[in-house]
Design goal:
Elements lengths: L8 H31 L1 H16 L7 H21 L6 H23 L5 H33 L5 H27 L1 H5 L2
Helix pairs in contact: 1-2, 1-4, 1-5, 1-6, 3-4, 3-5, 3-6, 4-5, 5-6
Length: 191
Amino acid sequence: MRKLPFTSSRARDRAKEYFVLLTLGFTIAVVFGAITALTASQRSLGIFESIGRSIAGKIDTQDRFHTFLSIYFNNLGVATSAYALGVLFGIVPWLIVMVNGFILGLVVALVISQGLMSPVQALLAIVPHGVFEIPAILLSATAGILLYRGTLKKEGLDLVYSSLRLYALSAGLLLLAAFIEAFVTPRVAGL
């Protein structure tokens, strides 16, 4: 039986390599976001308020299903951008990962340092859905880089096929993450 092109060891190795590098970049960005929040708190509060206004329009505390759909389509839009715009020399996936990491670090450090949440409550507000959402965004960014490498760099269709699989996996994980974020996280974190 012939192996399908998206199961090549080369594609898997490339995907693992980019996923690890993107995870490292995300982690560094989280740290820089936290440092920024703690060292430039007034400027960070302005960013935080802007993010809060953006999120407030998407959350409906009375209708969790609407919130679930809103979260899912917002995150799917981010994942799709990381994937589809990966063809722009593989840069956009990196930007999306770094910006999201920076914002996460900034927001968590701010809500804790300003006394809006305890460290435990902040973790409970992120971890239940974050264990699916963060890897999903990293997978879509990995897929975007593979798409670029397989098309513009002409490194092979196996990379393109692998990118499609990773993007589909990312979309599925984001669905699960959105469900948890809308229905489980508020109860667990006491929000």
